[in-house]
Amino acid sequence: MKKTDNATASKQVKKTKERAALPLSNADLEAFRSNCALASALDIIGDKWSLLLVRDLMFGIDTFSKLQSRPETIPSNILASRLKRLQGQGLIEKTPYQERPVRYRYTLTSVGWALKPILLSLTKWGLDNIEGAVAPDFVRDHIEAAQLSAKSDG
Question: Which parts of the sequence belong to the HTH hxlR-type domain (predicted)?
Fold first, then answer.
């Protein structure tokens, strides 16, 4: 690695440390497999549903019934559990939009929105490597914009 690359990496690490950390309890921290950043991130979002929920919330699908009606057909008990967990881990917030019965609208926090480049990268990988995989045009547009931004930054 060049000296300039080391300096850039060091700046990125400092930027990461300046961001607000997830509001995790000691019990949450003890439940992690290790203190490895990747392993810890996977402990939070590595199940088969969490990133799909984050994806849907990014694109405005924000109520329980809308989330449940997605093509992946998440069972209602798992959806409720994942929403509660993502909220407890600071990735989403819920606000009531109806009183009787109480119904909630879910939105991403800044920590949840920070997953956008990861989701775009995973989607691009899927498009590039899985025959028959599809993504809506607006998602492809986001991927292209992210690639152009990366080229202009580099």
Answer: 36-134
